[in-house]
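Table S2 (text version). Query chain:
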Amino acid sequence: MKIWTSEHIFSHPWDTVVKASFRKYPNPLNTAVKGIDVIDREVKQDGTLQSHRIITSEWGLPKWISNILGLTSSKICYASEFSTIDPFKKEMTLKTRNLTFCKELSVEEKLTYFPDPTQPNQTLLKQEAMITVHGIPLSSYIEDIITSTISTNADKGRQAMEFVINKLNIEMQEVRDGISKSVDDLKAQVKRSIPEEIDIPHAHFNFAPNFSTPKS
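Corresponding structure-token output:
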């Protein structure tokens, strides 16, 4: 069994990172993930959002390992992911376990996102994986290779997150620009509808007191 751990800091608020996580794929910077299907999603009574998804991916393993594990030529693998978002604690947890060739190989991965305790406007990602190969030759060596693959994919995943976050920021800026332009257009339209000079007739009032002697 091999245990792999890693930490990474995103220079973005937790809310932004969570949004990017759900829009992470498809992504040109990490093409290993081919599809994600939502099986179930529900807001629990405690206010947390819990989701179950099936992830379809392609593992870049050497051919001889794929043959030992019984992978087909397509190398398509499936994994089950359970996630929980707690908006009150500001914590998102994702737990993933492989469904393909699970009799020969077990890969359990956990990702936790929460605000960096030292920099609240940044987000800390703690990532860990437990890899176990059993019942096949060279199990320890294969575990090392799979661990290295997970590490490489984790780096690509972080780059993919930055790609999505940048895309989100561009979309938000376009929305802000659109709102600003709409307001400016409305102001210009209102200004055009009002004449430059409006003549308002002035009434003349005589407020001088009348001291004349009343007639008898």
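Notes on Table S2: Helices lie at 14-22, 63-69, 139-193. Residues 2-171 form a domain with the Alpha-D-Glucose-1,6-Bisphosphate; Chain A, domain 4 fold (CATH 3.30.530.20).
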